[in-house]
Design brief:
Blueprint lengths: L2 E7 L6 H9 L6 E6 L6 H8 L4 E4 L5 H12 L4 E5 L3 E3 L3 H6 L8 E10 L6 E3 L2 E4 L4 E3 L13 E2 L7 E5 H6 L12 H11 L3 E12 L10 H18 L2 H24 L3 H12 L1 H13 L5 H5 L2 E2 L4 H15 L1
Helix pairs in contact: 6-7, 7-9, 7-10
Length: 327
């Protein structure tokens, strides 16, 4: 199967060379496409000089992570596409482990790699995506010790920081959600692939070290605003009506608590993120109709992936843990 690795560059000249050097050590033949998101610096030219084997796709403006990946996926001719953050460093056998599960599994739409903290390489930053009854989506196994000898395990979906997708389902499902710009666009895609009956696995042996949230800054106003907005948009687009009817009180209670917390702590970014979500809700509901009309999976098939509700206190504790492990 042909493979293309897609990396979005935005002023990542200080970290991307380590990622590309690690890709040179992979045992699986592959192509590399670097999408330069109008960095406005010399990073793309410098990277291309050092790594001429990779193709550079320059964009005239910063279109966000989601659209940049979609543009690259449309231009690629590979059967499988692999997305990597520029601040990751894949282990030498990363591609081997993340691609192996696709063999003889036509309904496998995505494989999640294992992101570990660069400062704590024995600790998992993400083993794919887990979703919960109050609408929370979070990195699976966050903070747990990593064992690379475990065989591939089913998971709700893949985190795009280190993921492999079948290109055809990726494109026919709509790719990454471009209105999101960045953050949670992979959760939205995981939902849509699940709705269309595709499966996902976590590959424990497909390991990359990640300098967590280097692109936008862990805990930055920008990140908190987009997370708050995109959470609501994901649920508006992707959550089936039957599950919404059952879980809406949990979802609304969580958002009310989160909104109250952001107001009490003067977190203007998270507050405005939720207000931005409501302001842009009508287009998302129009997209919902198209998304739900293509659902082929049964509610039971989808529902078995939704875990118990996660409290705001638990989520805050995990975010604090992330900050600690990333430092």
């Amino acid at each position: 199967m042909s493979v293309e690795v897609i990396i979005v560059n935005y002023r990542s000249g200080d970290v991307l060379p380590a990622c590309l050097s690690a890709l040179r050590e992979q045992s699986i033949p592959h192509q590399v496409m670097i999408v330069d998101n109008a960095s406005g610096d010399d990073s793309a030219r410098t990277i291309h000089r050092a790594f001429p084997e990779g193709s550079i796709l320059p964009l005239r403006r910063n279109v966000g992570f989601a659209r940049a990946v979609n543009i690259a996926a449309c231009r690629s001719e590979a059967e499988l596409i692999v997305t990597l953050n520029p601040d990751t460093v894949p282990k030498p056998n990363f591609l081997e482990h993340i691609l192996a599960p696709f063999v003889d599994k036509p309904l496998l739409g995505s494989v999640a790699g294992t992101l570990v903290f660069a400062s704590r390489p024995d600790t998992i930053a993400s083993a794919g995506i887990s979703v919960h009854r109050n609408g929370v989506a979070i990195d699976a196994m966050l903070g747990e010790l990593h064992d690379s000898t475990v065989p591939p395990i089913p998971v709700f979906g893949a985190s795009a920081g280190a993921a492999a997708y079948r290109r055809d389902p990726f494109l026919t499902s709509g790719g990454l959600a471009e209105p999101f710009f960045m953050y949670l666009e992979d959760v939205d895609l995981a939902w849509r692939l699940r709705l269309q009956g595709y499966e996902s696995l976590w590959a424990p042996g497909a390991v990359v070290c990640h300098h967590y949230s280097l692109s936008a800054g862990e805990g930055s106003d920008f990140k908190r605003r987009l997370l708050a907005r995109n959470r609501i948009w994901t649920l508006a687009r992707c959550l089936p009506e039957e599950i919404w009817e059952r879980d809406r009180m949990r979802i609304l209670a969580f958002d009310a608590a989160a909104f109250g917390y952001s107001m009490a702590t003067l977190d203007r970014a998270a507050t405005f993120g939720r207000l931005n979500a409501l302001a842009g809700l009508l287009p998302r509901l129009a997209e919902r109709r198209a998304i739900q009309s293509t659902r082929t999976a049964s509610i039971d098939e989808i529902d078995r992936w939704i875990g118990p509700a996660m409290s705001p206190q638990k989520l805050l504790a995990l975010r604090e843990l992330t900050g600690t492990l990333a430092s």
